[in-house]
């Protein structure tokens, strides 16, 4: 079969149904919410991930003889390193000190969303290999000359890869000789290591923890439930304008407290509730009937993803309640297997989340930087492996079991 590769400057150039079909095929038949065409289109059309914000879309698509979509990939031309969560600021500084330009670079990732998800979407293994090879050719040509993209790029980064992606982007399918990089996240698994089955209730989850952690969680939940506090879980399709506007007020305040600006705007969250409300969960806390805090999640039947939260009144332990305990309860009730609690945060282990190693692939074109960066990655990998091993010894579970994905 002949393959034709297309570089798309908007996800809108790819048919929604065909893209989502590939997502399901590469994700065990499940439509990953952060990879949905609707999610990526909302990022672009609402002005969050555009060339103007440093996220120039360059999505790749492989078509067959009849024009059918056989493979695709979310790809961006980045002019900075914000919103990625696999940090390469030191690499950029090294380039600048040597008088070379690090930006722009190519990035295969979901903007502002550090979650495990397939990136090399494909209908057949052959199409997947063709896409990996096409990415390698594009990267090499764009690193050598300006004609293809209107600029030269320095590096390629593919983040938070599944095992299948790793085979395609770190194996023989690509000619780039990419290097791997490891980071640690904290995920909750809906699996009772004492009884080897999914949890049936939050109390059963607590019973699987050691006494100290179980006691602390119960104490935190009591502290959070001050008199007059009520917590509401609202499906995306039922979220009102007032509830969403309050959430965005809280979300923006969290960024301001860290002297930063939010990556996402209100219209983006509104679009998600409208176009994929069946995979959106909003949690709101009210005190004496007035809203005081809110958190925002997206989910599928197998995974729950949560990072966005904020409050207008600092009540004790309310962050833990809205960001972790409500999420775990919801996952148990819905039979969701995994809860990904976002990047960083060792404190999550005390609440039943365990360390998981996430892997990315990186290509550096300049010969003078290849070996130094490779040596850095080798040392970093050894350090992170030791770090993850040490963390695993402090799991909150009584059985001391850490379950890998």
Question: What key phrases describe this protein's structure?
Answer:
405 residues, alpha+beta, Aminopeptidase, 2 domains, eleven-stranded mixed beta sheet, 24% strand
Structural class: alpha+beta
Integer tally of domains: 2
Main sheet: strands, sense, barrel:
11 strands, mixed
Mean pLDDT: 94
| CATH architecture field of the largest domain | 3-Layer(aba) Sandwich
Calculate the terminal CA-CA distance, rounded to whole Å: 35 Å
Task: Report helical residue fraction.
Answer: 25-40%
The count of strands amounts to 15
The geometry reads as globular
Count of DSSP-assigned helices: 11
Give, in order, the helices and strands: EHHEEEEHEEHEHEHHEHHEEEHEEH
The amount of beta strand, in percent, is 15-25%
CATH domain fold name of the largest domain: Aminopeptidase
For the largest beta sheet, what order do the strands appear in spatially? Answer: 2-5-6-8-15-9-14-13-12-11-10
| Radius of gyration over C-alpha positions, nearest whole angstrom | 22 Å
What's the CATH first level of the largest domain? Alpha Beta
Low-pLDDT windows of residues: none
Could you please describe the fold and organization of this structure?
- The protein is 36% helix and 24% strand.
- The strands form two sheets. The chain has an eleven-stranded mixed beta sheet. Strands 1-3-4-7 form a four-stranded antiparallel beta sheet, sandwiched between helices.
- α2 runs antiparallel to α9 (266-275).
- The chain is globular.
- It has two domains: 4-177, Aminopeptidase (3-Layer(aba) Sandwich), CATH 3.40.630; 187-355, Gcn5-related N-acetyltransferase (GNAT) (Aminopeptidase, 3-Layer(aba) Sandwich).
- With 405 residues, the chain is α+β, with helices and mostly antiparallel strands.
- It contains eleven helices and 15 strands.
- The protein has helices at residues 16-26, 37-45, 89-97, 125-144, 163-170, 202-207, 211-224, 241-257, 266-275, 318-334, 367-392; strands at 4-8, 55-57, 59-63, 69-73, 76-78, 105-108, 121-122, 155-161, 179-189, 229-235, 280-287, 290-299, 303-311, 338-343, 354-364.
């Amino acid at each position: 079969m002949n393959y034709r590769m297309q570089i798309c400057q908007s996800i809108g150039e790819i048919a929604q149904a065909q893209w989502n079909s590939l997502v399901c095929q590469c994700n065990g038949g499940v439509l990953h919410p952060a990879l949905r065409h609707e999610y990526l289109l909302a990022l672009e059309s609402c002005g969050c991930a555009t060339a103007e914000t440093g996220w120039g879309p360059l999505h790749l698509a492989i078509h067959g003889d009849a024009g059918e979509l056989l493979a695709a990939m979310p790809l961006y031309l980045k002019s900075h390193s914000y919103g990625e969560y696999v940090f390469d600021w030191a690499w950029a500084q090294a380039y600048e000190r040597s008088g070379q330009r690090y930006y722009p670079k190519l990035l295969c990732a979901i903007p502002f969303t550090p979650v495990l998800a397939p990136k090399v979407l494909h209908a057949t293994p052959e199409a997947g290999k063709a896409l990996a090879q096409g990415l390698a050719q594009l990267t090499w040509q764009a690193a050598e000359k300006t004609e293809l993209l209107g600029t030269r790029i320095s590096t390629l980064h593919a983040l938070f890869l599944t095992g299948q992606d790793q085979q395609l982007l770190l194996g023989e399918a690509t000619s780039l000789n990419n290097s791997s990089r490891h980071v640690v996240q904290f995920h909750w698994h809906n699996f009772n290591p004492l009884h080897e089955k999914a949890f049936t209730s939050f109390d059963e989850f607590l019973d699987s923890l050691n006494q100290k952690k179980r006691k602390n969680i119960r104490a935190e939940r009591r502290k959070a439930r001050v008199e007059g506090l009520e917590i509401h879980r609202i499906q995306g399709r039922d979220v009102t304008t007032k509830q969403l506007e309050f959430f965005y007020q809280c979300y923006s305040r969290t960024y301001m407290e860290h002297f930063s600006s939010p990556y996402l705007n209100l219209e983006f969250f509104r679009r998600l509730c409208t176009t994929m409300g069946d995979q959106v969960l909003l949690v709101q806390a009210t005190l004496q009937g007035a809203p005081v805090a809110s958190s925002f999640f997206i989910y599928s039947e197998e995974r729950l993803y949560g990072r966005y939260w904020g409050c207008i009144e600092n009540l004790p332990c309310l962050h833990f309640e809205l960001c972790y305990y409500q999420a775990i309860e919801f996952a148990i009730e819905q039979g969701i297997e995994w809860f990904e609690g976002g990047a960083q945060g060792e404190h999550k282990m005390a609440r039943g989340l365990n360390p998981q190693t996430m892997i990315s692939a990186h290509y550096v074109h300049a010969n003078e930087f290849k070996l130094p960066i490779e040596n850095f990655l080798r040392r970093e990998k050894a350090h992170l492996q030791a770090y993850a091993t040490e963390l695993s010894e402090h799991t909150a579970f009584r059985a001391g079991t850490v379950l890998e994905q």
